[in-house]
Fold these 3 entries.
Entry 1:
Amino acid sequence: MRQRTGYRHILIITWLVLTTGCQGPSQNSAPTPWPADYLPSVIAMTAGADATSTANALDITGLGNAIPTDTAVLPATEPPYILPAGTSTPSPEPLPAVIRILAPGPLSRESSPLNLRAYVVTGEAGNTRVELLGEDGRLLARKVMRLTSRSSEGVYVSIKIPFEIEAAAELGRLQIITEDRSGQIHAQMSVHLLLLSVGNDEINPPGSLVERCFLFEPLPGASVSGGTLAIRGEMQPFNTQPVILELLDQYGNNLGIRGLTFLSIDKQEFMTTIPYKVSQPTEARLVIRQGDNRIAGLMYLYSQKILLNP
């Protein structure tokens, strides 16, 4: 009798394992604390180890109130958006960034005033803002200029930026932002600095002067139809903060959004889509941006214009 009971327990345990072990993650698993501005998005998990690697991405799109709250993970061997073998697009020739900060380089030690040297491609005529932020995000200095570049080389900028800090030293972010005629941000490039109240400057070499984002598709000015924008490109993130891809109309209204999380800061390929809905041909700006992991605000922004059709 005791032996039969033992067999029965084994059968029951085996049945439970077989029927529950294949059901996948529980619907009641802990939610991932995504920012509220991820509407109706997102997420992707990408992986890449070098300049030729392709990101493995899993995208989840929510509609209406069905916004996903869980981060889903696929095994690295089963990526749904990986490029088929032999079809990976060769890496393009590196393009100069539209904003190139020549000096000071990353983590340079700077006392007031700091000397900024940069090339800025403005595209459309608009304001160019140079801003210096403290480690708590407070604005230490701002200069607004009206620049118009007449070549792909851009406009050479050389200015002194005075600032004051109370501490002996603190982390800061120097950022250059260009805007189009409507006031939307066209591009942004930033660099972290160590700000000194007194002391000698130690200027490091510039960081990368090539554009961190390159899109194979869509090309600038492309016309897209069908309600879904396919995006394929290369990205070298500044950090592992989410990279946000967003469609904005000329008034800054959101037409679609997607988030990608890169698991390394190496350059890597990615593929994703952004669903959108328009009732007529609409000129839009595709914005790709990444936040700063050390000081509140953006670290990088790249954009290009496209035409969205129903």
Entry 2:
Amino acid sequence: MNNLNFTHALGYVAVLSFFGIIGFVVAVMLPTQSTGSSQLLASPTAAHATDYELQDISVAAEAAYVLDASSGEVLYDKSALAQLPLASITKVAVALLAHTHLNSEGVLTISEENLLPEGDSGFEIGEQWRVRDLIDFTLLTSSNDGAATLARAIEKATGKDIAILLNEQAKELGLAQTYFINATGLDSSTSFGGAYGSARDIAKLFVHVYRVAPELLAATNVPEYTFTNLNGKVYEASNTNKVVPDLPGLVFGKTGFTDLAGGNLAVLIEPEPGHPLVVVVLGSTQDERFKDVVRLVHTALQTTE
């Protein structure tokens, strides 16, 4: 993947210094120890799964995590604390910031600067989008241009650099292995990703969104959707998650893929009301991430019946 080319890249360098991310980099480069069964997301009373039918499943992903969010029980754990590139799962954190700082009915105008990141969503300079629609489009299609547009609007609304805001949010949510360099998750160089985090952190992020703003990612539970911007231009959008029909009770999900990250996919399903399950795979391949998640989801459903 090409390097991210935001015009205020020097700002991100300052962010690295501000958050002491150089220290994090050292941690990323060191070998990651596998997580023990005592590492839990929820309350201290949550117990690691004893159902070996699920825990013994082999996945291609470097890290995977399955959480019964209603009980706090960890149903599957493979290197769930490993700090790995997040790729476009980063956009979930951006959407959460947009939910906090932007008016969902506000209007955003696409600028030349917004179109600098790698990838082409078909946007034209000067076209206008409602914030709500742009969030949906960005998450459904994993649009880097959409993420850049939202990031600039958030920066304008807050007076803060987007990376600073993302890292502050991660700290507030207790995402201990997570930090951000840019708003898209694109690799920032050939050897360093645009964001890092753990499978357990992403599960925690998804549970938070489910609890405070479940509608925020609702567009990601359909295979395709038609968007019309405020200029009347129509976009026929396809979900980057190719296995939406194979995930019973899907509430929302997010894909991610870069050269460094490999294939990522996180989903939250609700097989019955009030009983959410979160499945996260990081560091799989572009194709195997889908097989990994479907296998874990279907086995988890059998386990929890």
Entry 3:
Amino acid sequence: MRSPLIKRRNLRQIAIVLLLSLAGCGSESDPVLEETFERVYTVQPNTDISIQNRDGAVLVYGANTNELQVHATKRAYSRMRLREIAIDVSVQPTTGSIRTKFPPKPRWALFDRSGTVDYTILLPATASISQLRLVAGEVVVDGMRGPSVHAWLGDGRMLAHNCFTRIDLALQRGNLTFSYDWWEHGTFSVHANIAQGSAWAFLPSDSAFHLVAETAHGKIGNDFDNLAVERTASAGAAKIDMLVNGGGQAAIKMRAADGDIKIVEANP
């Protein structure tokens, strides 16, 4: 049987560990420290960009430019933690990578206070994004017209806007929206895959595309349903397969494993 002295010593050691863990967590009143990063690089119109981040936001905007502009804001609760977050940008004439290096997560802390990084990136609209990967936060991709865009988000919100390209969106948990303010009758596609969450598509009335939408556990709402020239149903799951306004050369495929899908006629 352990003596009271040993018991007290063990309890004291446990208390010290807990206090150190809580000290690393801070409180809501702790000031958030910020540090900005800004760089401009000259790139080719057909450059290929990869982006990796863990926590925060990645906002990407395509424009008529031959530059890659990177603006980042680091946030953390301590000066040491802020210094430990590194932004690594490597640019060649036709390739570029933007990566965030976070310090290891504390082993004993009850909460992860390793900080966040928010990116705003401007690049040629004709560029490709071979990889955009964010573990948690918000992803926005706007105005891309290059060969392809591949974006993956673990947890949060994803938005694609006016992207006339082959865009592949994957979301593990959260909400996904893609929209077009106007329609261009060309060859492009949207492939959206959501594991857990809902998806919305906002499309003009004159949109012409082949639509495939399915959800294993959820509902599908479709404002273009009366324009279908082909429709199929799958037993045991909500699914539609149809041509809207003749189909055209565009294709939209949406799949939710657990969640609802809504296709909205934005300006009927």
